[in-house]
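Homework-ish question, so no full write-ups if that breaks the rules, but can someone show me the predicted structure for this set?
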Amino acid sequence: MTGRHGLTGTGALLHLAVRRDRVMVPAWVLVMTLVVTTSAASIGSYYDTVASRLALAASIDTNTSLRALYGPVHEASTIGGLTAWRMLTFGAALTGLMGLLLVVRHTRDEEETGRLELVGSGAVGRRAPLTAALLTAFGASLAVALFLALGLAVQGEEVAGSLALGLSFAAAGCLFAAVGAVAAQLATTGREARGIASAVLGMSFLLRAAGDAAGEKGPGWLVWLSPLGWVENLRPFADERWWVLALTGAAAAALAGTAYALVARRDLDAGMLPARPGPARAGAGLSGPFGLARRLQRGTLAGWTAAYAVAGLVLGATAEGAADLVEENPKVADVVREMGGPQSLTDAFLAAMLGLLGMVAGAYAVQAVLRLHGEETGGRADPVLACAVGRLRWAAGHLVFAAFGTVVLMLVGGAAMGAGHGVVAGDITGRAVSTAGSALVQLPAVWLVGGIALMLFGLWPRISAVGWGLLTAFVVIGLYGPVLHLDQWAMDLSPFTHLPKVPGEEVTAVPLAALTALGTVLGAAGLTGLRRRDLG
Amino acid sequence: MTSAISVSGLHKSFGGTHALDGLDLTVRTGEVHGFLGPNGSGKSTTVRILLGLLKADRGTVRLLGGDPWRDAVELHRRLAYVPGDVTLWRNLSGGEVIDLLGRLRGGVDGGRRAELLERFELDPTKKGGAYSTGNRQKVALVAAFASDVELLILDEPTAGLDPVMEEVFRECVVEERSRGRTVLLSSHILSEVEALCDRVSIIRRGRTVEAGTLSELRYLTRTSVTAELAAPPRGLEDLPGVHDLRVTGNRVHCQVEGERLDPLLRALTRVGVLGLTSRPPTLEELFLRHYQNGRAAGTGTGAEAEEGAGAENGAGTGAGTGTGTGAGAAEQEGAAR
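A: Not a homework solution, just the prediction itself:
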């Protein structure tokens, strides 16, 4: 393949990519747009005067953990300025994630599965797949920018600022798409490429957080080592610094150029990093369905546990500061009390955050259970079940993780939250223990979610993804119910509503026992169905 | 002779599709049994019922003296299965998968495992995601051949293997038979079945259309004759049981039904035979006959092929475009079924 024909077929591949992503990308754009616009609307309703907004910004500036999480407030007098503060770092990171996922999906994943070989045997240039993938990611990033800017402008926010906020997301999306492009050349599997690129994204977030936390008194320059720090310094709604876009654009171009250079130097299917060989013999632990399930699930659980430890620490450390912020605004305080209980605002905040960790642990439970479905439809269950392994024993290996992995997550998340709170408020050990105990209260609802997923998998495997839909509904009820003042019967549809709000409230056994029993019954129904139905 | 597998009147539907429509299959202990059929004819569905992964709607199924649905776990200790499309766990190495599957069945023969890795030229340290299709297949084959079992169920196991590895596979199957193990080999690769199998069952649309030893099945079809004669022959088209006659100068090519061979040879020798080749039909022809007969209208795809006797008959049957002898073929096949 010569350079001249290196791009042949890009159009066709781009068309294919757009078609394959016709649900995923619009969903991503829609969610990002909705989150930012509703956030602007709620900031507008809770902080409806300039004075209240300036007061909020003043307290944020004195709170290190909030600055680490969201960055400094560059402009507090407008709703747009506060929205930019609240959304920019996370939104840019999420758009970056979208960019890198898209590029790896259309390059290394395709190559790994062998589909690229099929495509590549047609009239397709060597650089065409990478070009099509980058164009897809750039297009999706710009779509996020466009819709988000439109959404904000329609709500009456300043047009230049709205556009700048959108473009800060898009710049991160494009830049991390280019990071994904390089990672896809280095690694031999899509999973590894996503790992490398996400690690770069995570590093960027941490550097920016450290720099922002340090502020003017410390090593604030750390921010400039991070692409997320750059886009933050576009400063939407606060005398935009448009030149930042040139900086990110140049970095993205340099990374993309590196990826192209690597493409030209390597063989199909090969990576730049050597593929790590595995052991030639299985260890003693890999000897039964439990051993297999442990190998398949442990990496995921380790990742979730680490994330829960970090999230718990950060949420715990911000608890006091957040409670202070909330106290200044009675409307917000009402919402937090409704989510977290009528006790002290700090306790209410902690209870609300534990509830959040519980709902997210529901996602862990669903994915651990539906791993069974993935093994079945992926053809990896057949070889195991064709050995002397009964269906229940096969399922049990994975269900152990759903049942007890969630216990680990809540214990770690709760303990970390207590410890983080303790760093600020004193008594690290005591708070870690007591908050870990409070976190366990979430488990009956988490298990019920897992039980629903197991029931669907056992009885109606084709619609087992409905488990995700139900969990999403529970999360929406839990997060937005109090804000939207939903009727009690609607709130009661979510199992998480029935949990006592601890720390603060009295723990009663009846709802916990009832939820656990219901989860067990649904799970048992699923297992009965699994024993009786056709597999595959 | 006892049966390792006996299936009769097996029915299985998925929604509105009848995957199996009264299938019969008998595999005797110690034999290599070929299970032949085009894609979508129900081979894999049958195998999955034999493994207890699917539940039969109707019919009786016995596997190693037990009920494959009810006694699945016990029976699976005594068999090994190789799927046609092997998918592996991407974070497990090939060696780990071989050991895991062996342990799940009740043990791997370490010496045999090492020998098989060598013969199949398989690197056991690669991760599942890094193997090619053929290498994934080898992982499953090594795991199966290294297990101490009575019955091997192989569902199109050689799809991704190159010719050299295909040969290694054949040697392994022959060794398994010499150890007294039973093999059910589902395939649509006819040379493979022809080379390896003692008996064959041919299925189409979920129904067994023929079963028996290769010589029994050949009885149902014809002999392919090519002759170089002293002069152009006459009147051959009037002989009963002669099909697909082609005369080019002094050269004759035709298919003849087994019991009609004698009159044909007499007719040929009357003209004077300079050269003669006759051979039994390949399994290819057997198979194409059943396959093509199933099509509503013959497409004549096999018509130009020298060896495509069955295909040509099929086309004649469907479209009615054949000569007089073609119509004869249709009658004869109707009777055979």
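Now go work out the reasoning yourself. Hint: The longest strand of chain B covers residues 3-14.
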